[in-house]
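User: Some background: our group keeps a shared notebook of sequences we're curious about, and every so often someone picks one and asks for a predicted structure to add to the entry. Today it's my turn. The entry only has the sequence so far, pasted here. Could you supply the structure so I can complete it?
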Amino acid sequence: MADNSLSRRELLRSAAVTGLLLPGALAACASPGGGGSRTPAPAATGATSAANPLGIAETSPLEVVIFDGGFGDAYAKNIHEPLFAAKHPSARIRHSATKEIAKTLQPRFAGGNPPEFVNNSGDNAMDFGALAQDGQLQDLGALLDAPSWDDPSVKVRDTILPSAVELGTYDGTYCVLNYASTVWGIWYSTKLFGDNGWQVPKTWDEFTALCETIQKSGKCAPFTYAGKHPFYIYETILTLAAKIGGVQVLKNIDNLAPDAWKAEPVDKAAEAFAALGAKYLLRGTEGLDHIQTQTAHNKYQVAMLPCGSWLENEQKDTTPADFGYAMFPLPSFSQSDALPYGTLHSRPGEEFFVAAKSANPRAGMEYMRAMLSKEGAGKFSELVSTLTVVKGAADGRTLKPGLRSAAGRLQEAGENVAYFRFRQWYKELHDEVAAATGQLMAGRLKVAQWADRVQRKADEIKNDTSVKKFTRT
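Assistant: Of course. Here's the predicted structure to add to the notebook entry:
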C-alpha cells in the first residue's frame, strides 16, 4: 500500500486548502475561475530614489491586516497608515482588523493571495515556524539596510534594538518585525495597595504572606490569571524558572533539549504556582478570559495578576481614573537564585511580517519603515501605552502610569532579562504547554504529570522530521 501520510506542516496547508481546517476556506481560497491555489503574479516594483529607497510601485495597492487585540487597530489607521500615505499618496491602502488571524488569513496564504502586511498576534496567530518553512515570510534585509525614515544618513538597523533583529531572525534571515518592547510582570493597583497598606513583595515568602493577608482581609481575592488562556500563567512559571536556574533553562526548552521540562528550576517554579493556584486564586479563574480577569482587577475584586505591558491600554475604557496601574517583577524564590531580584521577562514582541508571496511586498516593507520612524513609534507608545523597539522614540512623550512603571522596572533590570522563543517556533508545543498548565493550576495534574506531558510533546516535535527546527545560542 502506498504511503499517503502527510507531515504536520503539509497537513496544515492541505487542510486550509480543502476547508478541513478552517470554516469557509474553500470560498476564501477559490480563484475567480473557480480553481484552488494560484501562482502569485510577479511582485510589484518601482524605481528606487531618495524618496523611495525600497523601490515600491507607487500606484499599487497595499493591504494591511491588524490583529484586533490589546492594542486595537487605531494605531494603524490613525498613525502608521497616514504616515505612509503622506509619502506615497497614490498607493491605495486597504485596511482590515480581526481577532482571528489564522482563521481569516490561513486560507489566503494557502490559496496564494495573501495580504502584504500582517500583524500576526493573539491566541489564533498563524504558526511562524510553518510560515518560515513554507517561504511565506519576506526577507527584511533590504529594510534593515534602507535609510531610516527620519535621517537618510542612518540605516534602519541602527535605529532599533539589536534584540529586535535577533528575535525576528529565522534560519539566518531577518523576516519578522517584533515592534513592541513588551515587559511582563505582576500588575496591581497603587490605590488598592496604598489604601490597605500592602507592600510590594521582594521574596517568595513575602509574596505568599501577602496573598495570605489579602485572603484573610476578605476584601478581594489575592491572585488571578486568564484561565481560558493559560499562556499568561505558563509565562510566569517559566520566568520564575529562569530566575531560579538562569537563562540556560529557557534556552534548553527552546532548543528541545532532553528533559528540559523536567529540570529542577522548572519543577520548583511549577510547584510554587500550583500551590498558589490551590489556595489563592479568584473563584472561577479557570473559566475566565483575559478581559474578565482584568475587569475583575479594575473592580478591585482581585489584587494581582500576571500580564504584559499592553494591559493598561487594553483596559483603558474600564479602568477607574485613580486606579494607578503599576507592576512589580517576580519575587526572588530563594537566596540561591541564579538571577537577582528585578529580573524580568522582557523582549520585543507583537509580531508583524510582510508576505513574501503577496502582490506588493516592497510596499509592506516601506510601511514598516514608516512604523520605525520616531513619529510612528512615539505616537504608538502614547496611544497604546507600550514601548517600542525604536531607540529613544518614547523620550519626551506623555506616558501613562502603568507604562511609566514598566519602563522603570525595565531600566532597573538592566541586562537581567529572560525570554523564550518556542511559542513562535513550535505552536503545537505552545498549545500543549498552555493546556497542561491550565490543568496544573486547576489541580487536575501534579507537577510531575505536567512535566511528563509537556516533555512528551517537546520530544514528539523534536523527532518529527517534517517540523523545521530552530536553534537558540
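Suggested note for the entry: The radius of gyration is 23 Å. Residues 63 and 115 are 5 Å apart (CA to CA).
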